[in-house]
Amino acid sequence: MHEMSLAMHIVDLAASRAREEGAGRVSAIELEVGAMAGVMVEALEFCFEAAARNTVVEGAVLVSRLVEGLGTCLDCAASHPMRGVHETCPSCGGSLIHAEGGLELRLRSITIDE
Question: From 3.30.2320.50, 3.40.50.2300, 3.30.450.30, 2.60.200.30, which CATH number describes the 2-67+102-113 domain?
Fold first, then answer.
């Protein structure tokens, strides 16, 4: 389950930021998670809670915003939303799709309390 390593990394980043700012606690973390990033948000949230225990991040709210996937067909050049990496083009049925969005996992903000 790679969500645990992701959660641990998020906690480390947030705790480091809190230390840099001289803050006593992190109250919220906002993420953008691409629909095709291969991240199970529910598992990440569960792992985040465990990884945050006994740190300045414990009790912080983890807000995950889903970013829709977008792909362009290399056969017909049609762009369309994507939910997975193995989709076919709804316009021509082609299977050569270039993913242009929805692969990201981005830490958007960390809210810290003094």
Answer: 3.30.2320.50
